[in-house]
Amino acid sequence: MNKKMLYAKMLEKDINREQMCELLNINPATFSRKCNGRTEFTLGEITKICDALNVSPMGIFFEEKVS
C-alpha cells in the first residue's frame, strides 16, 4: 500500500479523508489503520477508491513486479 500516492491522488481529485471515509462507510480511525498497513482494504473498498479517484489499483494497492 502506497499511502503517499493515495493521498496525492485524493488531493488531485479534491477528496479529503472525511469524504473518503463516507464513501467507504468507515470511520476515520479505521481508514487510518488501513492506510498505515495495520489492517487491509477490502477488494470492495479498493474498487470504490479507484473508481472515485479514476485510477488503477496498481501502484497504490499492488506493486508491479517485473522479472
N- and C-termini, Cα separation = 20 Å
Percent range of helical residues: 55-70%
Largest sheet: none
Number of domains: 1
Instruction: Count the beta strands.
Output: 0
Class computed from helices, strands and strand pairing: mainly alpha
| Rg, nearest Å | 11 Å
SSE order: HHHH
Strand content: under 5%
Mean pLDDT: 94
Contiguous uncertain segments of 5+ residues? none
Task: Report what the structure shows.
The radius of gyration is 11 Å and the shape is globular. It is built from four helices and no strands. The chain has helices at residues 3-12, 17-24, 28-35, 43-53. It has one domain. The chain has 67 residues and is mainly alpha-helical. The chain starts with a helix and ends in a 14-residue tail after the last helix.
Topology diagram in text:
Elements: H1 3-12, H2 17-24, H3 28-35, H4 43-53
